[in-house]
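Researcher: Next entry in the queue.
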Amino acid sequence: MDKKIISFNDFAKSLNYKKLKTNLERQDYDLKLDSTTFKDNFMCSDSYIKTKIFNIIDIIVENTQIIKFSEFITNLFEIFNKCIIMINDKIKTDIKQKFYIYYSDYNSIMYPYGKILSDKSNYWVSVLFNYYVLSNNKLDDEILNNIFYINDTYYIQQLKDNTSNILFFDDCIYSGVQMATNIYNLSIPKTYNFLNFFNNKKKLSIPNIYIYVPYISKYGYNNIVKNTFDNIKIIYKNYITNLSDDDCKLYNKIMLSDVDIIDNDKNIKSLVKHYFNITKRHSLIIFEHKIADNISIPYLLYTKLPSNINNIIGTYEEKDITGNHSKKEIKLENNKIEYMSLLQNCPENNDCFITDYKKKDYYDKYLKYKNKYLQLKYS
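Model: Structure for this entry, 379 residues:
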């Protein structure tokens, strides 16, 4: 789509509603996380390391929520209805109100000022909002004339008056870093830096910003509120579990099972941070319609884990109660490394994760890359 700003109805003309409808009517899968098979086949000559690894996996598996596709769509449509109510209420108060749906999802590091990534969830959910509104006659034509789709950051930066409203849609917000950065990039001239932003953000004139998302972590919510503007409103349905949540502090529990591993180059690495690549800002949720990246969730939730630790970890350091280190050796074996997944009942080739905005070859390449990455990193 070449236009940088397009009307709500014109945007609909570019969509395949028949395909959208078919996609939304798909059946749920009975996905589940099960560590039983992994544990039964796991090979490790050191019971101490084995216990630590099982403890970490148990914490992750027991606290991860799996969202069926039908449940996700129900909650998404509920969020859409809240947006529709907001639009109606604002138009009743002031007929000059305009609404701009930002439908480009940035990779804020590689494309800070304007590459459209149409295989991203922000675009897909924005498309579903269009489909939902028009298929169900949720808004009058007069109101639809005041709603636009936009992907031009410069244009948005010119919207200063109180009659302009920027709408963001997404399926889930995990750490909130990407959304906060997107809002910063959209709202702030290129001449600003983060220091200028924090020193002057109360003086900046910006439009009203609304974020509509069915799922969000408390960590992500606070990240957006803290690092953007005071007039941002986040409308959500459910909180998701994040490892840094104060009410569960799962990350601290996981770190109790951490062990220092010594690699072949004599570097000391963390079992939690390097073997499992778990970070404090990870969330614990799996959707049937997508695989989040390993910045958002621990990769052990969707990729395959090596089952023969003997061929991966040769040496580790154990701390005693006084904090002293003692080096431990794991017996190395020549057995081939087998990889097993904790995620069960997913159709072959992960077809359950394929949606309109994700092509099948994307996941084929992505999962192959992840498994290759594991083998390169630890073999």
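Model: The radius of gyration is 23 Å.
Researcher: Noted, moving on.
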